Amino acid sequence: MSKHTFEQYAISSTVSQIIEGLGFKKPTPIQEQVLPPALRGESLIGQSHTGSGKTHAYLLPMLNQLDDTLNHVQFVITAPTRELAIQIQEEVKKAIELAGKEQVWRSKLLIGGTDKQKMVDKLSSRPPHIVVGTPGRILDMVKEEAIDLYHAKSFVLDEADLMLDLGFIEDVDQILVRMDQDVQMLVFSATIPERLQPFLKKYLTNPVHIQIEDDKPSPETMEHRLVPLRHKEPADIIVEISKAIQPYLAIIFTNGKEHADKLADELLSRGLETGLLHGGLSPRERKRMLKELQNLRYQYIVATDLASRGIDIQGVSHVINAQMPKEEEFYVHRVGRTARAGLQGTAINLYKESDLPLIQKLEKKGLTFDFYEVKNGEWKEVNAYNERENRERKASDLEKKAKQMVRKPKKVKPGYKKKMKQQADKNMRKLKQNRFKKK
Q1: CATH code for 6-211?
Q2: Domain boundaries in the chain?
Q3: Sheet arrangement for strand 222-228
Q4: Pairing of strands 378-381, 369-375
């Protein structure tokens, strides 16, 4: 546990006022490691899970350096989704209010789905100090010459791996070639996939690399249940699960938008009122869906991994993995949507044999899984996935031992194989009886 406080850092009285107003007592592990190099103006790569406090890890150093006598963009923060950009902008505005700088510090949210020309006009008349937005819309404004980012001090790339998956890295690249090559780069990502390496090497020279290893990959208040698929349709099992749980809100994860579309249709056809959220929806459709979620229209929403990191959905009580993810990190992000702020949470995982290596890796990380089936709307505990495997292995060992106990005759006579098998069977029965007596 960290014994550090914010007082040890070279921060202004204004930023101290913001920290106090936010109610922060001590830095989180990611803040503790990011703040010193970020305050010195060094470029860095920060790896940490959702909810680790990384937004303020980069926001506080930025506000510490903000010079309100300058009339140009000083900081650029990019996010892969409109929803995440909105959340970051809300944190920026809250910090500005706590600093009492509403009339002095200016920030602007640049995202799609808004009037482009109106945005151009506003930016041209008075440039903001801080730009928060999605890469596509920020690039639009740069190309329209509504904003000039060349003199910006720092550039934040948030959720870099998701930015890569959604195909926005090229837009980021186009923004950066229009900025000073000495700009401070602050890259945050849950994972650093190999495909991201060329981008990082192009824009970061000897960056500080910070990786926060979370010993507890999910909250202690989280329960993890495994439900075998056994050739059943995921939609049928989820309908049965819906009879056994009363979720405030359950997110049902799939691997990819095609699977999400199919599962949502199947659940709707089975009478389960279900929402849908993935990167293939238009900005308007996503905005409508999030509003309907806030208004508690749905108890269930089918989503892709976009919702595990790119969007903060409040009140999630259950996570159902209709398909287990491919990587451990994605499991952590998915289940991280629930059991927040000390609340209870349940992760229900539909699994098949090919998922066992992932489950075993997660068990090695310290997760404990309980094994269930759900029938007639009731949970029923079942044997662990490896119990049958253990029984089969023990039976095989006994059979081997029983055969070894049979002596092969020196002179082979007709029917000797049959006699040897009979003797082995007799030995097998004795071994089983002895094992039973021991028990």
Answers
A1: 3.40.50.300
A2: 6-211, 222-381, 395-438
A3: 274-277, 300-303, 250-253, 318-321, 345-351, 222-228, 369-375, 378-381
A4: antiparallel
Q: Tokens standing for 98?
A: 């706590």
pLDDT by residue, tens only, the chain of 439 residues = 445 688 888 889 999 999 999 998 888 889 999 999 999 999 999 987 666 788 999 999 999 999 989 999 999 999 988 888 988 999 999 999 999 999 999 999 999 877 788 888 888 778 999 999 999 999 999 999 999 999 999 999 998 888 887 788 999 999 999 999 999 999 998 778 888 899 999 999 889 999 886 545 555 567 899 999 988 999 999 999 999 988 888 999 999 889 999 999 999 999 998 999 887 888 788 888 888 887 888 889 999 887 666 666 777 889 999 999 988 878 887 887 775 544 567 899 999 989 999 999 998 888 889 999 988 888 998 877 654 454 455 556 667 766 677 666 666 666 666 777 777 777 777 766 665 455 4
Phi-psi domain of 11 (left: phi exceeds 0; alpha: psi -120 through 50; beta: other):
beta
Structure tokens at 368: 């404990």
What's the whole-model pTM score? 0.68
Q: Give the whole-angstrom CA distance, residue 167 versus residue 173.
A: 11
Do strands 250-253 and 107-110 pair parallel, antiparallel, or not at all (unpaired)? Answer: unpaired
| SS3 state of residue 299 | coil
Residue 439's Cβ-count burial label (10 Å; 0-12, 13-18, 19+) is exposed
Q: Cα(58)–Cα(64) distance, rounded to whole angstroms?
A: 10
Domain 6-211 shares a fold with domain 222-381 = yes
CB atoms within 10 A of CB 361: 13
CA distance 106 to 274: 40
Distance between CA atoms of 65 and 189, rounded to whole angstroms? 23
Q: Beta strand pairing status for 154-157 and 274-277? A: unpaired
Adjacent-strand bridge partners of 107:
130
Q: How many residues does the chain have?
A: 439
* CATH code 1.20.1050.10 for 222-381: no
H helix intervals, 336-415: 356-364, 387-404
Alpha carbons 264 and 300: distance in angstroms, whole number: 10
